[in-house]
Structures are given as structure tokens and as C-alpha cells.
């Protein structure tokens, strides 16, 4: 297996920015650049890599707040989230200021994503799944060959994403996790947006929100 990843915790929210790369081709992407951009770029350069793209799971500030700064240094395409999160990216200047983050300008991604889209890093294809509930436009990235799921703030170790934010929906979240994620192979590794990694099988058996 030559798909590799490194989790880089950023912002006061300890968001898991993920550096993902194909060791064979040297192609690299950054997922959820929430902030601490110089640190993220240093971690990327340390491995001899250059980001060729940014992928976003959703529009919350701790996942998207560093994108504009990154784009000022690297002109790379930004894929995601789903267009239903456009209101969050539009409000980034106010929201970052409100939370005491470095103020981010609003931006529009190069490409909004939809259920069934495919993204590639090197030789690895990731399937896009739309999982609304935490935010209406939240997407996750699934690589069947690498048995890897980038879950953003949908699914965490023994818990699930908050749904008390604007346009959150608990029933939507549970329904989409159950129908789209719990059906994946049990040993699929789950990289969550915060905290430790887990697997689909572990969550199926132990996540108190997903029993029955
Ligand atoms: Zn979030
Ligand atoms: Zn988050």
C-alpha cells in the first residue's frame, strides 16, 4: 500500500487536517485546512511534498478557515464541500472574527461536490458521499482500495457530529451514517475531524448513537 497520511492537528479546536499522498507518484492533497497554515506547509515540505489540491469536508471555520491563506501561497484547486455549505463559506469573515480566529476572507471552492463524485490523489480514487446533518453540505471521502474513510465531523470515536449548529439535523445525520457508512467493510479505517482514529466495525459495535 502506497497511500499514506499524516494527521496535523490545527487551530484551538484541534482539528485533524489530513495530509494525504501517494508514495509512488508523490501527489499530495490537504484535507480540511482549518488554520495554522505555516505549520501545515512545514509538515508537508518536511516530507518532500507539495500540496496539489485542497479537499473540504464542510464549511466550518476549523476546517476551512486556513484555505484562503493557503491559496495566497499555492494556487491549487479546492474541491468541496457540497454547495449546501455555501452559506458557511460566505460567513467565514464574521465567524472567524467571532471565534477569535485569524479573520479569513470568504471564498468559493473551484468545485462543489456531490454524492458519487470521484477525487483522485495519485493512483487512488476517493468516492464522495454527501452526509448532511452536522452541516447541510457535509461530504466524506472513501477510498475502497486503501480501506480509508475521511469522515470530517460526521463520525468520531464512539460519538457523532453535533447537530445544534445552524441547519443541523440529527435525524438526517443518523440516517446517512447508517445507510452509507455502516455498510462499508468493518476494517475500514476512519479518520475523524477531531480526536483519535477508529474503524467502521468499532463504531458499529460501540457507538452509543448508532445502536439499534
Ligand atoms: Zn464541523
Ligand atoms: Zn470540526
Automatic annotation (TrEMBL):
Q: Does the keyword Oxidoreductase apply?
A: no
Q: List UniProt keywords, sorted A-Z.
A: Hydrolase, Metal-binding, Zinc
Tell me the superkingdom of the source: Bacteria
Q: Known InterPro entries for this protein?
A: MBL_Glyoxalase_II, Metallo-B-lactamas, RibonucZ/Hydroxyglut_hydro
Gene3D superfamilies per record:
Ribonuclease Z/Hydroxyacylglutathione hydrolase-like
- What are the required cofactors? Zn(2+)
Q: Which residues form the Metallo-beta-lactamase domain?
A: 14-194
Q: Which GO terms describe its molecular function?
A: hydrolase activity; metal ion binding
Keyword 4Fe-4S assigned: no
Family annotation (SUPFAM superfamilies): Metallo-hydrolase/oxidoreductase
The cross-references to PANTHER family, in alphabetical order and at most eight, read:
HYDROXYACYLGLUTATHIONE HYDROLASE GLOC
| Name by which UniProt lists this protein | Metallo-beta-lactamase superfamily protein
Q: Show the taxonomic lineage.
A: Bacteria, Pseudomonadati, Pseudomonadota, Betaproteobacteria, Neisseriales
Amino acid at each position: 500500500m502506497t497511500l499514506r497520511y499524516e494527521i496535523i492537528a490545527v487551530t484551538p479546536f484541534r482539528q485533524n487536517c489530513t495530509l494525504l499522498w501517494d508514495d509512488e507518484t508523490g501527489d499530495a492533497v490537504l484535507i480540511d485546512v482549518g488554520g495554522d497554515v505555516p505549520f501545515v506547509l512545514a509538515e508537508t515540505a518536511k516530507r518532500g511534498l507539495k500540496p496539489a489540491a485542497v479537499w473540504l469536508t464542510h464549511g466550518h471555520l476549523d476546517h476551512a478557515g486556513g484555505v484562503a491563506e493557503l491559496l495566497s501561497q499555492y494556487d491549487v484547486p479546492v474541491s468541496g464541500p457540497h454547495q449546501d455549505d455555501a452559506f458557511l463559506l460566505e460567513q467565514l469573515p464574521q465567524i472567524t472574527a467571532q471565534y477569535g480566529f485569524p479573520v479569513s476572507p470568504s471564498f468559493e471552492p473551484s468545485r462543489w461536490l456531490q454524492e458519487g463524485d470521484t477525487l483522485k490523489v495519485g493512483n487512488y480514487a476517493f468516492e464522495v458521499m454527501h452526509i448532511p446533518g452536522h452541516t447541510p453540505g457535509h461530504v466524506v471521502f472513501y477510498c475502497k482500495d486503501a480501506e480509508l474513510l475521511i469522515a470530517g465531523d460526521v463520525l468520531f470515536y464512539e460519538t457523532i457530529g453535533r447537530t445544534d449548529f445552524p441547519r443541523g439535523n440529527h435525524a438526517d445525520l443518523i440516517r446517512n451514517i447508517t445507510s452509507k457508512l455502516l455498510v462499508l467493510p468493518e476494517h475500514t479505517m476512519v479518520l475523524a475531524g477531531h480526536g483519535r482514529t477508529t474503524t467502521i466495525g468499532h463504531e458499529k459495535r460501540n457507538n452509543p448513537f448508532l445502536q439499534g
